[in-house]
Amino acid sequence: xxxxFSRLILSTLITLGILIALEIATSAFLPAxxxxxxxxxxxVVIILFMALKVTTPLLPWFVMLLQLMHAAFxxxxxxxxxxxxxxxxxxxxxxxxxxxxxSAIATMITVQLFQLVWYVSTAAIICLKLGNFEKFGxxxxxxxxxxxxxxxxxxxxxxxxxxxxxxxxxxxxxxxxI
Length: 178
Fold this sequence. Notes:
The protein has seven helices and two strands, in the order ααβαααααβ. By secondary structure, the chain is mainly alpha-helical.
């Protein structure tokens, strides 16, 4: 039990370190090159990785922890991101048995589809809270350039996280159980 717990803690800390490094890099470098309108939400891709490849009853807590860390670098609220992250994780957990990550293209398409679900859900919840769906399309379409870039980067990020969580050697398609 102890080796699994220490591996869980170590993998979590490394994942948080990766998220912090990516958040700092995107917060500092993207505005410097003129990309101010859109943010790259690496937290979404990390949560998708965990939902698709790591099987643990602690997943909602990981989602909340990642969202809290992301909120330190963003104006987005952690509560809405946690709610949507858990909803998307539930969908991913039902579908992960049929999903294949055997190629970079398959990973990119899967990540893009789940990001679309994420941003549709986020925009819908915000519009419900506001009681006005007039800005739904604008909120959704503003996220699209970032999602496309993140989908292109997702195979690299998934490979890195596979090493951190040791998912490529533990269990096949269904992920690693912790």
